[in-house]
Amino acid sequence: MSTMEKTFNNGEVIIKEGDAGNTFFQLLEGKAAVYKNYGEKDEVQVAILEQGQYFGEMAVIENYPRSSTVVAEGDVKVVEIEAEELNEYFTQNPDKILSIMKLLGTRIKTMTDDCNEAKKMLDKVRKSDSKINYDSFFSQMMQQSIYLTSKNFRLERPSMEALRAASQAVSSQNSEDGETYNYGTIIFKAGDVGKCMYIVHSGSVGIFNNYGAVDELKLQEVSPVACFGEMEMLTEEARTTTAVAEEGDTRVEIINAEDLGGLFKSAPAKIDMILKSLSYRLRSITYDYFNACKEIYESSKKD
Question: pLDDT for 20-59, tens place per residue?
C-alpha cells in the first residue's frame, strides 16, 4: 500500500491552499497549524491539529483543491495516504472509517453551530437600523474566519456531482438489505439516542421538526438512494428531528457504527456514498455560513 511516513521541521508547509489534493494525512507526532491566506497580510489561523488527527481528506473524498494551508508547529511526523490507495487503507484499517466519519461529523456540527449564530446575527442586521456590535460577533465565532476581506468570500456553491455518482453506484447494486415501513411509520423521533444511520432504498422519508405539533415543519425529504440519521450516530447525541416514512413500502437499510468495517468489505460503494454525503453537507453548510457572514461584514462597513 502506498502510505509513507514524512517528517517536517518547524514552519514547513505540509499542504498548501489551492493545490490539487490526491493524498491525505494523519498526524503521528507533533502539532500543525491550519491557515487561510497563509503568508499574506490577511492570514488567519483557524485551527491547531493534534496527534492522531487527519487532515486533507476533503480534497481526496471529492477531488477538490486544498481549502487551507497546514504548517508544522515544531517537528512533525505524518503518514501520507494516496487517494487511489484509500480502499486498501480502509481494508487494512477498518477502524479508521469511523474515525474519519466522526471527524467530518464534528466539523459539520461546529460549522452548523457557527452558521446558526451567523444567521441569527444576519436576521438582527436586516431588522435593525441601530448600530450593532459586529466586533463581538466576529470574535465569538468558532471559525473566526470570516476572513474579513472580499477575497475570502469567493466561495463557490458545492456541486452534487460526486455525491450523485456515488449514489448511483449504490443504486446499481440493487440491495435488498433493510426493513420495510408502512406510510406514516416513525423511524426515529426527536429525543431518541442516535445509535445508527439509514440508507433509503425505496419510497421516501420525511425529516421533521416538531412532528405532530401545530408548528410542525418538514425540513427534508430523503429519496433513494440517500442516507439520513448519520450525524447523531457519529456525534453520539440525541436525535433533534423525527423521521417518518412518507410512502408505503419504504425500505431503509440500518447501519450501526460498529458495522462500518464489515460494510466496507461487502459494499465499499456504500461507505464511499456516506463519506461523499458528509463532505457535501460540510461544504454546503460552509457555503451558507460564508454568505451570511459576507452580508454581515458588508453591513458593518456601511455603518
Answer: 888 999 999 999 999 888 888 778 788 899 999 999 998 8
Domain count for the chain, please give it: 3
Please spell the DSSP secondary structure of 44-89, one letter per residue. EEEEEE-TT-EESHHHHHH-PBP-SEEEEEEEEEEEEEEGGGHHHH
pLDDT digits (tens, 9 = 90+) for 108-126: 998 898 888 888 888 888 8
Residue with cell 497563509: 38
Q: Strands (DSSP E) along 192-266, which ranges?
A: 196-202, 205-209, 217-222, 226-228, 242-245, 250-256
Residues forming beta bridges with residue 193, ordered by sequence position: 238
Question: How big is the CA angle at 298 (ends 292 and 300), to the nearest 5 degrees?
Answer: 105
**In angstroms, rounded to a whole number, what is the distance separating the alpha carbons of residues 79 and 29?**
10
pLDDT computed for residue 142 by the predictor: 44
> CA 69, CA 56: separation in Å to the nearest integer?
10
Together in a domain, 132 and 54: no
From the CB of residue 239, how many other CB atoms can be counted at a distance below 10 Å? 17
Based on the domain organization, do 258 and 218 belong to the same domain?
A: yes
Q: Which of 13, 1, 18 is nearest to 96 (CA)?
A: 1
Helices (H) and strands (E) in the chain, counts: 8, 14
Run of H or E residues at 277? helix 268-302
Of the candidates 192, 1, 157, the residue with the CA atom closest to the CA atom of residue 79: 1
